[in-house]
Amino acid sequence: MKSSIIESIKSLPPLSKTIIDINRVYADEEAGIGDLAKVIEGDPMIVANLLKNANSPLYGFGKEIRNVTQAVSLFGMSMTRSIALGNSVRKLLNVDMQPYGITSEKFAEVSAMQATLIRKWYSKVDKQKADKLYLAAFLQETGKILIASDVIQEDEDVSFKSEAQHSNNLAQVEKSYVDVTSAEVTAEVFQHWGFDTEFVEMIHYADNPSAAPDEMKEYSTALNIVKTVLPVNAPLSEQAINFGLRHASDAGYDENLLQETINDMLDAVKASS
Fold it and tell me: Pfam families recorded for this chain (predicted)?
């Protein structure tokens, strides 16, 4: 890993007190929705982002969500935590995704779509594993923020953007410029912030699942399939979907289950446009 990226990770500010409190409440088996809502209500930025997500067509709640408790009740504690974490991480890292040819808003949207796809798909495969994978899918592209920043600092953003916009293998483009993929950078970021080993490892191998330890291989493969279907440069394009379905078939998944979930997402995207 480039020394400049290592230094960027080491200099990251700590997570906010609100996020620490959210993680504490989430880990407390006796805590409930009301406890989580109370913590969130103290942070206006997280409240605004949570309500924005709750009213997005992506989740299809079908009615206006006006308060935190209502949003937390509908999302559940796992999804609420993921949305809060995702927003806070992006704020901390000062997102500029110009080298990838997308806006920070589009980056956030694709991250949410990856998480939604894995939740809906994996709920049909293994509900317990779906809960673990949701947060990882929501945050797995975080490393792209630091890679984009490094590329800009090295004045390589124009050439990087030219390659990234038309590539069907963003990990390969990243490797050629910064010697690592975004999955590896993301893993280092969350290790720096003290996340558990399982979470860090499933993301670390998401760009190369075949190298993952046996106990992590399924998680890393699932994350890889989702980011293949929804790459930040061409989410849900016909080519991306075909690549993702092929990866799923090669990994032994029921291709039809994934195709059904993708079709549902395509319908939701069409309905919102």
Answer: HDOD
